[in-house]
């Protein structure tokens, strides 16, 4: 049975499309089948021409096929987009950093060939990451439901007033304070918005949520 790898790129950057072109060639040379979304494949071929080997096309708005993993070429934003794509299926993500920070990526652009070799020889392990289930209730009615890999944030809409925030854990009161908002982050998200708001960095394997007030009007309301 053919081993398929979905290659996902940041289409707004030529560097990312070039890396995708090379990744497809390396995957094919290692005996695997590269798969790309239809729109991204078209962008890549407009820049660099057609590959000498076939690339399986994933048509837009079509269910993800049977792939072993998703190789994400870009920064953290591209990896978050990939997480949205695969959240309904049990497919791991492998980030190759092309961005400025790349906290979520496990590999760097210069190591692309070695990374493909490791994938081909199955020399990798899969880490599970916590996600957040987010629900918005107004007067006893649920008006919104989504999920997040990094964080959920509540922010004030009126600059002239602060929010009165009441937090509970397992339906038990924890604390309350006035602030401009609050960030609830997973360990994965602890290096993103929560970190910028003064929160701690949490190891990805720790089962914990970080609660970070935004400009809290209270001496004790620390992350």
Give a brief description.
This protein is an alpha/beta fold. Helices cover 23% and strands 32% of the residues.
Kindly describe this structure:
It is a single chain. The protein is α/β, with parallel strands linked by helices and 223 residues long. Helices cover 23% and strands 32% of the residues. The strands form 4 sheets. It has a 6-stranded parallel beta sheet with strand order 3-2-1-4-5-6, with helices on both faces. Helix 3 links the parallel strand 4 and strand 5. It is elongated, with a radius of gyration of 21 Å. The protein starts with a strand and ends in a 9-residue tail after the last strand. The model has no long low-confidence stretch (mean pLDDT 88).
The assigned structural class equals alpha/beta
CATH fold-level assignment of the largest domain: Rossmann fold
Q: What proportion strand?
A: 25-35%
Bin the helical content: 10-25%
Report the mean per-residue pLDDT as an integer.
Answer: 88
User: What count of domains describes the coordinates?
Assistant: 2
* Main sheet record: 6 strands, parallel
Determine Rg (CA atoms, Å): 21 Å
Assigned CATH class of the largest domain: Alpha Beta
Distance between the termini: 49 Å
Uncertain runs are none
- In DSSP terms (H or I, runs of 4 or more residues), the helix count works out at 5
How is the largest sheet built, in terms of strand order? 3-2-1-4-5-6
Shape, please?
A: elongated
Total count of strands: 13
CATH level 4 superfamily of the largest domain: Probable inorganic polyphosphate/atp-NAD kinase, domain 1
Helices and strands, in N-to-C order?
Answer: EHEHEEHEEHEEEEEEHE
Q: Architecture of the largest domain in CATH?
A: 3-Layer(aba) Sandwich
């Amino acid at each position: 049975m053919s081993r398929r790898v979905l290659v996902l790129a940041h289409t707004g950057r030529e560097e990312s499309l070039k890396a995708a072109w090379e990744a497809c060639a390396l995957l094919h040379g290692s005996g695997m089948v590269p798969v790309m979304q239809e729109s991204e494949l078209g962008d890549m071929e407009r820049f660099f021409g057609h590959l000498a080997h076939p690339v399986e096309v994933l048509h837009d708005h079509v269910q993800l096929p049977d792939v072993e993993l998703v190789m994400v070429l870009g920064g953290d934003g591209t990896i978050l987009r990939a997480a949205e794509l695969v959240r309904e299926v049990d497919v791991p993500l492998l980030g190759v950093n092309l961005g400025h920070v790349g906290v979520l990526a496990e590999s760097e652009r210069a190591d692309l060939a070695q990374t493909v070799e490791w994938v081909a020889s199955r020399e990798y392990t899969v880490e599970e990451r916590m996600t957040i289930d987010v629900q918005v209730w107004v007067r006893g009615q649920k008006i919104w439901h989504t999920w997040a890999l990094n964080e959920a944030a509540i922010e004030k809409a009126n600059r002239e007033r602060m929010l009165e925030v009441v937090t509970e854990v397992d339906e038990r009161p924890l604390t309350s304070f006035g602030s401009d908002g609050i960030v609830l982050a997973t360990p994965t998200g602890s290096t993103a918005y929560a970190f910028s708001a003064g929160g701690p960095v949490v190891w990805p394997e720790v089962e914990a949520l970080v609660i970070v007030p935004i400009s809290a009007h209270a001496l004790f309301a620390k992350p």
